[in-house]
Design goal:
Number of strands: 2
Radius of gyration: 23 Å
Strand order of the largest sheet: 1-2
Order of helices and strands: HHHEE
Structural class: mainly alpha
Distance between the termini: 24 Å
Number of helices: 3
């Protein structure tokens, strides 16, 4: 049980930290994204590389942070459950701990 709580706290902490990092990444993305691009070669502009990196950081922080936070909230330490059917037989598809269904 202690190991499950430790994993739950770690998932929630990492998820919250990644979601909190959006407070830094989003304003930077808006600031650098609103700057005009040189007309000559826009694909080689250093600001375009910076905006692309910031966009990737925002996307990864949001998706991975939300996934970690939700996983940590729902994590209980049991990965696979085995159902006990009303007739007393156990399910075959999922092996592991027994789970009584009432």
């Amino acid at each position: 049980m202690r190991k499950a709580r430790t994993k739950q706290r770690a998932y929630r902490y990492v998820g919250a930290l990644l979601l909190w990092s959006l407070v830094v990444w989003l304003p930077m993305l808006f600031h650098y994204g609103s700057k005009p691009v040189d007309e000559g070669k826009p694909e080689q502009s250093p600001s375009m590389l910076l905006v692309g990196g910031l966009f990737a950081a925002v996307f990864v922080s949001f998706v991975v942070g939300l996934a970690f936070f939700r996983t940590g909230r729902n994590y209980d330490g049991i990965r696979k459950l085995r159902w006990v059917r009303p007739d007393g037989s156990l399910s075959v598809l999922v092996k592991g701990h027994k789970l009584q269904m009432y």
